[in-house]
Amino acid sequence: MGSSWIVVAFCCLGQLCADQRLKPQIAAPRLATNNPTLTTVALEKPFCVFDSSLHPNKSYSIYLYAMKESAGAMSSLVTEGSGKALDSTFQQTHGGQLGPYRAAAFHVPSCASPPRLVDAGDVSKVSDVLKQYLFRVGDDGTCLYDPNFLDVCNPPLAPGTTYRFKYVLVESTEGIVKDQTLWSDPIKTRRVKLPLQVDTWPGRRSGAMVVITSILSVLLFLLLAGILAAVSSAVMRPGGPSAETRCTPQTAQPSDPRPQLGSE
After folding, report:
1. Which one-letter DSSP state was computed for residue 69?
2. Which end of the chain is more exposed for a tag (fewer CB within 10 A), N or C?
């Protein structure tokens, strides 16, 4: 399955997009392997999603909001009473537990010149293509602890936690929300496995591990059999003179006196 937004981009070149009810999508596996990770989620950027809301004389930005699914629908609004975009941070929302926080702000992706996915096969271009096409939530491990950091903080997500994401179109000068996507489907980060939780059932092992385990088991059996045979042989082997011989003392018996013949 390819990128839904890239398909929309090619369908909407030179015209306004009719469908504004899209959701943020997790990146295609061929572009982002091992996604999600323990602390990050790679999302497709919203190409051609907000074109019908853009005014030629205005400047716009895309805000990406994140929240934990447990936050609930009541706290999912991303606008304030004045219509301005919510400015909540990761710290203020306890990492999205209390509601949405702004995880990113970037320029509106160009619908007229989307990245060429075929260039992702070129080693020298793949990094630039992926940076244009994808955004990785949770990719900044230092912003929370850097007192000089002034940009939007995008700290690591919590392992084994379900999140939702939303893209919002904001007029840059006044900070007013002009359009927004729906919240994404639930996306869960990977869970940390404790050593006792690692599955060691042979069916989950590789073929090489099964062979090595079988060989070691046979060698251990042969070793134990050899030890038992040696012990049994030592017990059954005669250990020197018999008990009777060892216990009966050898005493000198006096010889019978013989009569002495005198000479006549």
Report:
1. G
2. C
